[in-house]
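To whoever picks this up:

The nightly regression suite flagged Universal stress protein as changed. Nothing in the input moved, so I suspect the structure step. Input below, exactly as stored in the fixture:
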Amino acid sequence: MNRIRRVILALDVAARDQESIAAAVELAARLGAEVLGLFLEDPRLLRWARLPVARQVSPWGGALDEGRLEAQLKALAAQAQAELEQAARRRGVAWQAEVLRDELERTLSEKALQEDLWVIGTAGRVMGLAVPTLATLRLVLPQAARWVLWQPRGGAFRHPMVVLHAQASHPEALLEAARAWMEHPAEPLTVVMLGENGLGSLVQNWQVRHGVLVRPVHLRTATLEQLLEVFVRTGCDGLVVGADLPLLAGEGLEQLLARLPGPLLMVR
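Regenerated output under the current build:
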């Protein structure tokens, strides 16, 4: 796994939460990297506020005040920047922050580097309304992002479980990423292998070359529920998967994040 130079926290201001900010700063301190906070003001929220449906779900029973909504988004962005600054100063981490609104996909793509680790915060509330932000962030996430940490809950990510499947394009990259996240390299790394296709011999050769103790779990096939059962049973606190994992197709990523009791590191 190449050295990570920046931890980029991409956070919709509607989903601002101290856990995501703290997780990004802790990771930056742990990796010897700087942290860049990108606080996104989704312009679609303002367009949505103009629609008739907004009156039906407004907590005040009337039309949403677009100016009030915009002012709250700006206030949330300022508060998020202040919290990032405080957390970074406490840990002695170099930091920067920007507030982005227009052309999010293009702007984020311009900022993406191969050496970046992206930390994505999801789900929040604005003016009492639930705002699903995962779909927005998934759409604008740059394709160049190689390492994406979804939905950090707390700071723990010391005992990862890595999932390999028969069609994985770069299985060793997943193993390397999981090893980099281990707090104690001498402890066993839990590796779930879906299907056959030589995965067992590949993992065995990898562990011999790197001197890593592997705790293998072989499953011919697995549903999302079965995968989560293994995760809980093995006592892991983070999941490492490839972006090409079939279980993530369609709404699989959203379903996994909704039920996973820990962060998800997705590797491209």
